[in-house]
Every structure is written in C-alpha cells, then in structure tokens.
Amino acid sequence: MQAPEPGQAPEPGAATEPEEVEEARETGPLRRCIVTRDSGPKETMIRFVLGPAREIVPDLAGRLPGRGMWLSARGDVLERALSRGAFMRAARGPVTLPSDLRARIEDGLRARIRDLLGLARRAGQAVSGWQAGREWLQAGRAGLIVQASDGSPAERARFGGRGLPSAAPLTAAELGGVFGRDHAVHVVVAPGRLADAILAEAGRLAGIAGVAPDIVE
Q: CB within 8 A of 40, min separation 6: which ones?
C-alpha cells in the first residue's frame, strides 16, 4: 500500500506497502482492491490506469499500459474510492475523475457482453429465440443461459434450464441487436471460455450497477 499524501491521514484500515509489491501482484492470480484492501480474482475486479493528463481511465479488458489500480467490482466500493481520495493516494498525486465514471464503466461492461455474445454467435456457440434455445437445452448443448433483463419473469422462468448458470445483463433490444433482430429474450451459449467470460462480465456489471445480481450459477 502507499503512503498518504503530505498532510493527509491514512484511511482507516490502510497501511503503506512498497510499490514493487503492488506491481508484482499484477502478474499473479489475485489483485488487491485499493479501497477494501481485500484480494480477489481479477475477473471480479475493475482495473484503472492513469491517462496522459492524469485522468482515471477504466481498463475493463485489463490490457492498457501502466501501473494498475484495482477496485472490487461493486458500486459502493467505487463511491468510496471517489469520496475518500483512494485514486489520488494510489496514483501518488492529483488525478482527474470523470463525473460520469460509473456510467462509463457500466456502458463499457455492457459493450463487452455484447461483443462476447457476438463472438459466440459467429462461432456457432450461441443461439437466440425460444425454439432454438430449447433445442440446445434438450440436446445438452447449453453451458449458459442469457435472458433479457426486461423480459417477462414468468416467461423467463418457463424457459427452463435449471441447474445451468444464467444471467440477465442486457435488455431485449440489446440482445436482439447482437442477433440481428428487434429483440431477443432467450439466448443459449455453449459451454466454454466465452460462456465463462460472459458470466464474469455480467457479475461485474451487476456489482458496479449496485443491483441484486440476476445471476444463477
């Protein structure tokens, strides 16, 4: 952890830690949240870096150059980071915080989910629609069920797929756009890395949005 800025008391529960230790963690399996100090898999966290003008930039893919600042993917943790100067301490100096940072993260995560679903569709690993989805379920080809967040709860429950991971991170219009239609309520994804990635991004989105995760595993 880092030393506090001159004249600034450290946040309760915070302790300083050498920079090289923090950087070394970026090569390991776990990341440490700069607010809670808890460590967890990077798939459950959000990475931030400093831009050229020292603006805080969310690095949702975890690939931008620079020393990463990691937050647990939770809306309340993000708000604490913004209100308590956690980014400034982690960056060891002044930073610029976009006023719409939370919205940028949520929009970026939704875009990542759409992109992953698009990859799965083009690879023949995802289908949409009641009939096609049910056929995959019955044939044992399903690894993940994605349903529209604004779809009828009764219809979503009637679709079935108990025992399979499921999530509802996008609206029917957003899901439909991925599959070239006006709307889609039911999507089935084959088991594999893409299904795992979609489920992880849905979890991060639910956490940042501060809503009850519409996810079943």
A: 30, 31, 33, 72
Is residue 116 within 8 A of residue 125, CB to CB? The reply is: no
Burial class (CB in 10 A: 0-12, 13-18, 19+), 68: buried
Tokens of 200: 């992880």
Residue type at 5 in one-letter notation: E
The stretches of 92-141 forming alpha helices (DSSP H) are 101-122, 130-139
pLDDT digits (tens, 9 = 90+) for 199-208: 999 999 999 9
Name the phi and psi angles at 142, rounded to 5: -95, 135
Cα–Cα–Cα angle for 167, 187, 216, rounded to 5 degrees: 20
Domains and CATH numbers, the chain: 19-98 (3.30.1230.10), 103-216 (3.30.1330.30)
Each residue's pLDDT tens digit, 37-79: 999 999 999 999 999 999 999 999 999 999 999 999 999 999 9
- Residue 17 DSSP label: -
Distance CA 134, CA 96 (A): 49
pLDDT band at 215 (very low <50, low <70, confident <90, very high): low
pLDDT > 50? residue 11: no
pTM, 2 dp: 0.85
φ/ψ region of 85 (left if φ > 0, alpha if ψ in -120 to 50, else beta) reads: left
Compute the distance between CA of residue 191 and CA of residue 183 in angstroms, rounded to an integer.
23
